[in-house]
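Progress against Task 2.4 (sequence-to-structure conversion) is shown through the following example record, which the project officer requested during the mid-term review.
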Amino acid sequence: MERYFELKGKRQLDYISSQGCRFRCAFCADPFVYSRQWVALPPERVVDDLSSLHGRYGFTDVNFQDETFFTQRERHRRRSPKGSWSANLGITWAGTMRADQGARLSETVVAQCRKSGLRRVLMGVESGSPEMLSRISKDTSTEQVFDSAGKMLRHGIRRAVPVSSSASRGRATPSVQASLAVAHAIALG
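Structure tokens generated for the chain above:
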């Protein structure tokens, strides 16, 4: 593990606590591979695993590599008898979410996540163009993107917002221009 941490440049553990995705994005293999199903390890198992791994390797950060960590809204709030599992270990964490998942989280829940050590969310934006979002069956809106990003910003949580783009004959299409505008607006906060 020391070599792993050395290569990463930090004592960050990558951990997968769930598999699959319930959504229907046309560009992704997951709906076909997992038949739009999502299964997760029980929260108690995740806490036990991370506590054990922390005792052995002393990592300072967990990067949840789940396709959509926030699929089950209450999942991240599970606590050990002494409070937040991540706060008890003295670590930070990062997770993935869709814009609609972030939009459904209350400000209170986002504040609790931050207090528990959430430092960054990777939010699959894919496009800033409503037409393209519809075409790829993303089932999210730019309004949800801005709502989710705003919540994270208000609570000091960094946002990573990947967008997909392509140019036509070296020129940015309107869809690409819309995606870049969304990414730029989020980056500026």
